Amino acid sequence: MAQRRLIIAIDGPAGAGKSTAARALARRLGYLYIDTGAMYRAVAWKALQSGVALDDTAHIGELAAKSQIELTGSVDDSHVLIDGRDITTEIRTPQISQAASIVSAIPAVRRALVARQQEMGRAGGVVMEGRDIGTHVFPQADIKFFLEASAEARAHRRFTEDAARGTAAKSLASTLAEIEERDIRDRTREDSPLVQAADAIYLDSSSLTAKQVVERMAEIVEQYRER
After folding, report:
1. pLDDT tens-place string over residues 31-74
2. CATH number belonging to domain 7-225
3. The sheet that has 85-86: what strands, in order across it?
4. How is 59-123 classified by DSSP, letter by letter?
5. What is the pLDDT of residues 76-132, one digit of tens each?
6. How far apart are CA 71 and CA 17, in angstroms?
7. Are the C-beta atoms of residues 162 and 168 closer than 8 Å to each other?
8. For the chain, domain boundaries
């Protein structure tokens, strides 16, 4: 009998390694990988491109509802499109990261994107990562992970990644300040704040390699299947 295809949720703060872990786990399981954060980045990108103020919540909510956001390609070659335009590279900048954190706190934006995320993952066979997957998007997910790391470790990772792309902040200290600012915004927003689901498995990646994180997740998935 074929194994039932699971819904796996990975939540955590910025820079904890969610995207790397989710991609690797999806590849290992042969599952669909969905980066929900990229959807919020796409909305932020469009708002900035359109000259919409980030505190114009009504306008941005309408923009999110009307925009066509697509996540296409494979785990190893994923693309983010909005209204048919590929913005995969353009949304991976510190400016968009900060803007995405702001627009993601807008209830109308979350309602629009959560509905699409639920549609994308409802059939199972999916690894979905974000900040409210296990608590709001798929509270019934088969397996939930909460991936954490110290702010310092996350800032170092983010600074290194951005430097490799040529989009790094002026200093590691400024990256740390941005991480801490985003943590506060994500954890204190009224609509679907970043919190660990009561039944989520906590993993601290501060001193772990990406490979070690994925190995641990894969072990847990295998144990779940063997029940």
Report:
1. 999 999 999 999 999 999 999 999 999 999 999 999 999 999 98
2. 3.40.50.300
3. 69-74, 77-82, 85-86
4. HHHHHHHH--EEEEEETTEEEEEETTEE-TTTT-SHHHHHHHHHHTT-HHHHHHHHHHHHHHHTT
5. 899 999 999 999 999 998 899 889 999 999 999 999 999 999 999 999 999 999 999
6. 19
7. yes
8. 7-225
